[in-house]
Amino acid sequence: MLTDEMLLDSYHMAVELKLEREFITLLLAEIHKRNLDTDSSSILH
User: Fold this and answer.
1) How far, in Å, CA of 5 to CA of 11, rounded?
2) What percent of the chain has pLDDT over 90?
3) How many CB atoms lie within 10 A of CB 32?
4) How much is the average pLDDT of 25-45?
5) 14, 27 Cβ separation under 8 angstroms
6) What average pLDDT does this structure show over 32-43?
7) Residue 28 contacts residue 15 (beta carbons within 8 Å)
8) Are the C-beta atoms of residues 27 and 10 closer than 8 Å to each other?
9) Are 10 and 2 in contact (CB under 8 A)?
10) Which residues does 7 contact at the CB level (< 8 Å), separation at least 6?
11) Full set of structural domains in the chain with CATH
12) Considering only CA atoms, which of 45, 1, 3, 4 is closest in space to residue 24?
């Protein structure tokens, strides 16, 4: 179980490292499930 902070850090690092889109989508889904805010500049379109 990741803390909210670890989840957000993992998401931002995955975007920065351009990891697989499917992995990033999974992280983003969990972020939304937890109603957390992300930096809108790093959200994939």
Assistant:
1) 10
2) 78
3) 10
4) 80
5) yes
6) 76
7) no
8) yes
9) yes
10) 27, 30, 31, 34, 36
11) 4-34 (1.10.287)
12) 45
Instruction: Evaluate if pTM is beyond 0.85.
Output: no
Q: In sequence order, which ranges of the chain are alpha helices (DSSP H)?
A: 4-16, 21-33
Report residue 22 CA to chain centroid gap.
Answer: 11
Count the Cβ atoms, other than its own, within 10 Å of residue 26.
13
The residue type found at 41 is S
| CA–CA dist 2, 7 (Å, integer) | 6
C-alpha distance across the termini of the chain, in Å: 27
**Residue 45: its pLDDT value, please?**
42
Number of C-beta neighbours around residue 36 at 10 A: 14
